[in-house]
Amino acid sequence: MRNFDQAYSGKVFIASSPSYEESDIVLYGMPMDWTVSFRPGSRFGPGKIREASIGLEEYSPYLDRHLEDVAYHDAGDLLLPFGNPQKSLDMIEQTIDMFLKDGKFPIGLGGEHLVTWPIIKAMSRKYENLAVIHIDAHTDLRTDYEGEELSHSTPIRKACEWLGPENVYSFGIRSGEREEFEYASTSGMHFHRFNVADPLKQELPNLEGRPVYVTIDIDVLDPAYAPGTGTAEAGGITSKELLEAIHFIARSEANVVGADLVEVAPAYDASEKTQIAAAKFIREMILGWPQK
Predict the structure, then answer these.
(1) DSSP output for 22-63
(2) CATH number reported for the structural domain that contains residue 264 in this entry
(3) Residue 90 contacts by C-beta under 8 Å, 6 or more apart in sequence?
(4) Beta partners for residue 60, in sequence order
(5) Which distant-in-sequence residues (6+ apart) come within 8 Å of 240 by Cβ?
(6) Which of UniProt's keywords are assigned here (predicted)?
(7) How many CA atoms lie within 13 A of 38 on its CB side?
(8) Lower CB density within 10 Å: C or N end of the chain?
(9) Under 8 Å between Cβ of 221 and 237
(10) CB 246 within 8 A of CB 281
(11) With contact defined as beta carbons under 8 Å apart, do 75 and 20 qualify?
């Protein structure tokens, strides 16, 4: 496919179909970390998640589904221009437009969290009344980072301003500036600190029937479970809790229309537990979410 790195033709997510045309779901990588504020390296996340997927079973005992039950294609990584955030974001937005035009369910692998912003823009043009579920350690509600508006600390603020804050639901938040927490409490967004599964379960009935885009930052996990991320934050949830949240969404009446998982930075995790966990989450997302 145009603008995709074919170097990953031999390194695809487990059980990927070779055919884009015959697939309902498309997995794709966004290897960008041009705006990170602490440790770089998330551009290597998509490839390492794919490698880790080879150790997975293709069957999910949680959902009683097998990857052979779904038609999904791993398109590889977008060929993003190194160090050029705006052009990279434009390319991502154009790619999502193409996927949606072709009737695909997109699941993105980051890369830094700024990559979510152009996806939300494209999704909102396709789906009226779009809502966003945001699972993360950080608020990501800054307007800029040290004067730079294109930053991985800004995508959820941009989403709030684009969709309306009442259409954004954040879970697991435990880090951010005072001004970000003040915005969260006064803007009308749905904002839940520290925990994910229980508040998500309470909110999901309010999203019944609505198109929902889900973005997960791996740093919502405690560093004990996911040290391989650029901005690790102590006090997070467990892998089990994030799996429960994914399954709550799968069993809800929300109409999930796309998703991403971002901020896996493999260089900081010699044990590879971060990408191993990420690969399992992606499997559950592929099997559980597009069925609506």
Answers:
(1) T-SEEEEEE---TT-SS---GGGHHHHHHHHHTTS-SEETTT
(2) 3.40.800.10
(3) 118
(4) 65
(5) none
(6) Hydrolase, Metal-binding
(7) 10
(8) N
(9) yes
(10) yes
(11) yes
Amino acid making up residue 212: V
CA distances from residue 287 to 62, 85, 204 in whole angstroms, order as listed: 10, 32, 19
The total number of structural domains in the chain stands at 1
Q: Half-sphere exposure (CA, 13 Å, Cβ side) for 68?
A: 3
As given in the structure block, the two tokens for residue 165 are 């804050």
Strand 211-217, strand 59-60: pairing: unpaired
Its domain, for residue 134, covers 4-288
Strand ranges of the sheet holding 4-5, from the earlier edge strand across to the other edge:
4-5, 72-78, 25-30, 105-110, 255-262, 211-217, 131-135, 168-173, 190-193
Please choose, from the candidates 272, 188, 189, 180, the residue with its C-alpha nearest in 3D space to the C-alpha of residue 225: 272
Burial, 240: exposed, middle or buried (Cβ in 10 Å; 0-12, 13-18, 19+)? exposed
Structure tokens at 47: 């490839």
pLDDT in single tens digits along all 292 residues of the chain: 667 775 554 589 999 999 999 999 999 999 999 999 999 999 999 999 999 999 999 999 999 999 999 999 999 999 999 999 999 999 999 999 999 999 999 999 999 999 999 999 999 999 999 999 999 999 999 999 988 899 999 999 999 999 999 999 999 999 999 999 999 999 999 999 999 999 999 999 999 999 999 999 999 999 999 999 999 999 999 999 999 999 999 999 999 999 999 999 999 999 999 999 999 999 999 999 997 5
Per-position DSSP letters for 137-179, written without gaps between them: SB----S-BTTBSSSTT-HHHHHHHHH-GGGEEEEEE-B--HH
Phi and psi based region of residue 103 (left: phi greater than 0; alpha: psi -120 to 50; beta: remaining): left
66 Cβ partners below 8 Å, 6+ apart? Answer: 58, 59, 60, 287
